[in-house]
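task queued by scheduler; priority normal; single chain, no ligands, no partner chains; default sampling; output format set to structure tokens
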Amino acid sequence: MKPTVALFVLALSAAIAPAQASQELATKSKCMTCHDVAKKKMGPAFKDIAAKYKGEAGAEAMLADSMLKGGKGKWGKVPMPPQKISPADATTLSKWILTL
């Protein structure tokens, strides 16, 4: 019985870790200055972004590209400037946002 419980705990922590790690990356990358997971700040909530692009082909790449190049007009008048993050981090963040 104990090996089963240990395996379950290990699997659960592996499932939770990427989500937590990505939120930490968003905080470290200063995304949380303008965005929040659940509520609008200066920029849209990450959950709203996920809902808008749910099931859309190419959404992950488009979001990563917006982070790297900036964007305007998708969520109102306030533009998002290009972010100083690596392409790998932009991809990680876009994948995380789309899971919300």
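post-processing summary
- The chain is about 60% helix and 0% strand.
- Confidence is low (pLDDT under 50) at residues 7-17.
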